[in-house]
Amino acid sequence: METDPTRALVWMIGLPDISFLAVEDGPGGVGKIHVETVTRSVGCPSCGVPAQVKDRPLVELVDLPLQGRPCRLVWHKRRWMCPDGDCSMASWTEEDDQIAGPRQLLTSRSARWATLQVGKHARSVNEVAGEFGCDWHTVNDTVVAYGEALLEADDDRIGEVTVLGLDEVLMVRIGPFHHQHFSTQLVDVRAGQLLDIVPGRGSAEPMGWLAEQGRAFRDRIEFGTLDLSGPYRHVFEVMVPNATLVADPFHVCKLANTKLDECRRRVQNETLGHRGRKSDPLYRCRRLLTKAKERLDDQGSEKLKGLLRAGDPNGDVATCWEAKEAVRESYAHADAEVALEWVTQLGHDLQDKDYPIEARSLGRTLIRWRHQIAAWHLAHVSNGPTEAVNNLIKRVKRAAFGFTSFRNYRIRSLLYAGKPNWDLLATVTPR
């Protein structure tokens, strides 16, 4: 069966409205396909007089690899000029979004493919650039440009959010002193979807984002999930005052374990004068202390009691361990009012002057957050989906080997965890 080479090239390139001029081998084995648009009559945009071709500049665009080798599409553009000397329109260059978007270095089809690979599948830019045989910045700039266009075109991406979660992620360490730069993630907890990312971990940026969404969006929010963060609590109290705040149970129990560990290390230094060593009683029981009481068998329970008797002369560590277990016990209640009473009484009891300083600090925090802690029994929502989204963002960071540009970080994260409508990618062109 005979095959028309032009039709074969049309099938491979996917551009039926172009004429193929030549195919050549470029330097380094890079294939070059020379094309031009089908000739049409063009009028001056200003006066309408039929235009004349001024010159034919060659624009070399990165295209998808062909047969395992990098490929370039060489576009013989037409630069038009108006023959009317009185016209203010001097000259202009033809454009065709089917071939490439304005000021883009990749063809449209290779740009969309690169955006899909880097954005949806979390491949590294360097890997895709290696397949194209081009520079890292060429691919990254294209992915960010098309990613922004896709997110702007997807008007239905953010739906009706009823549970909003806030959490922070370390974005990058910059400078000789590795100064930390954080970002705040806003997540639809019920859908497990990343809504947006704002810089920093303060209250100003999330409040600004919520203000941009409008009053109707904020009024639909019924619950707000957060860790024990004062700035995030301020965001909810100011922007969505009618929402019920829910302190994440994991972070509440983590705080109790942190205070227990601080007490263990303090007593270790006060009794032995050094950090924990493998033969020290408190160091040997550090893992047993973090276990739930009901998960300790008889042997483990006896071992823990014996090590505490040997290394905790004043009973400070044992007191903090009981406090940690009491915090966990608060989540065993099914009634929100009982849980509130439990947390309130526990917080007051832990502030007794005879208790260790770590237990008193824990008690003050429990009192300050008692309503948000007890609200979990009413809402039964947590910041778990927000933490899951954070893990997706960290996967993007691993693929990118760290970010220094917040714009790149935000777009790449939203493409991977923001659940955009990828069908729209075929219709968008960056401007």
Record keyword descriptors for this entry.
four-stranded mixed beta sheet; single chain; elongated; alpha/beta; 12 strands
Polypeptide structure, described:
This protein is of the alpha/beta class and 431 residues long. Among the domains are: 5-99, no CATH class; 249-379. The chain is 46% helix and 18% strand. It contains 18 helices and 12 strands. The strands form 3 sheets. It has a 5-stranded mixed beta sheet, sandwiched between helices. Strands 1-2-5-4 form a 4-stranded mixed beta sheet. Strands 3-6-7 form a 3-stranded antiparallel beta sheet, with no helix packed on it. A hairpin with a 4-residue loop joins strand 8 (163-174) and strand 9. Helix 3 (125-132) crosses helix 4. The longest helix is centred in the middle third of the chain and has 24 residues, at 249-272. It starts with a helix and ends in a 14-residue tail after the last helix.
